[in-house]
Amino acid sequence: MASSLLPPRPVSPLVPTRAVSLSLNTLEKKFTGSLPINKIRSSIRCKRLQIRAVGAAPVVSSNLEADDFRHPLDKQNTLLFRAIPGLDELGKALIGPVSEQIMLLQNIGTSIQVSENQLTDLHQLLQEAAKILNTEAPDLYVRQNPVPNAYTLAINGKKPFIVVHTSLVELLSKKELQAVLAHELGHLKCDHGVWLTFANILTLGAYSLPGLGFIASFLEEQMYRWLRAAELTCDRAALLVVQDPKVVISVLMKLAGGAPSLADQLNVDAFLEQARTYDKVSSSPIGWYIRNAQNRQLSHPLPVFRAREIDEWSRSSEYKSLLSQAIRKEM
């Protein structure tokens, strides 16, 4: 399950409170003679409060549930999958312990496992994101791969894991990486891993049986529709963790056409304007048909569509309510 998660400059991690290193006495000596001391003190205290607010850790309610942020399309399509009888048993029977063992050994043998003693910054980002989303942190692996990507696997009740490619680590800032990890955690929080596996099994199994090509085609279309909806949910999970829509949109923009050498030239507002242009162009009858044909076989919504969706949700009463409830509980 691939996770394709700015202001005019690259997004950087939140400024920590300790960035304020000058004392009041030091600044008083520096400015004595040019401003009254009481005004200097008042100004410095104000600045300190502002920086503390910027560096404050994101908060989300400790009883956050998946349906609190699940996208409506995800809810609708998940219900359709759950209505298929015997799906759970079918998936477990077809995957089996051998496939699980192969996947586990492949990760251990070809990747670096993140832990308290290995790639500690990534470990901390994952733990923080899992705490905010009120879910257990899975295992995390970093794999050498030139294609920027991240994905999650959860099978048959085993401990799930996330894999992040090295090229993605190079492409994103720490805060953007945390958005990606939160996106993948969103898949686990919403049990997407199980349903993704089942959807793939249904489609592949139907295609392999004579005379069921039409059913396979129908199942595949339903599967892709659900996959796209699931990605929108997980973008919301990313926003709940980083609590800055520009960070999430920055990830989408960089995955669409970013590079480390271009990072200081990327503009998230221009990317959002590009998304609005796409909406206008595809609003005509012909544009609507082309857009649907373009999206039908995609496992992920178009980056511009995801950017527009997360921008709109960041200004919604639903999102603001989740944050305000969490803040009240923290108080």
Automatic annotation (TrEMBL):
<keyword id="KW-0378">Hydrolase</keyword>
<feature type="domain" description="Peptidase M48">
    <location>
        <begin position="120"/>
        <end position="313"/>
    </location>
</feature>
<comment type="similarity">
    <text>Belongs to the peptidase M48 family.</text>
</comment>
<dbReference type="Pfam" id="PF01435">
    <property type="entry name" value="Peptidase_M48"/>
</dbReference>
<keyword id="KW-0862">Zinc</keyword>
<keyword id="KW-0479">Metal-binding</keyword>
<dbReference type="InterPro" id="IPR001915">
    <property type="entry name" value="Peptidase_M48"/>
</dbReference>
<protein>
    <submittedName>
        <fullName>Protease HtpX</fullName>
    </submittedName>
</protein>
<dbReference type="GO" id="GO:0004222">
    <property type="term" value="F:metalloendopeptidase activity"/>
</dbReference>
<keyword id="KW-0482">Metalloprotease</keyword>
<dbReference type="GO" id="GO:0046872">
    <property type="term" value="F:metal ion binding"/>
</dbReference>
<keyword id="KW-0645">Protease</keyword>
<dbReference type="GO" id="GO:0006508">
    <property type="term" value="P:proteolysis"/>
</dbReference>
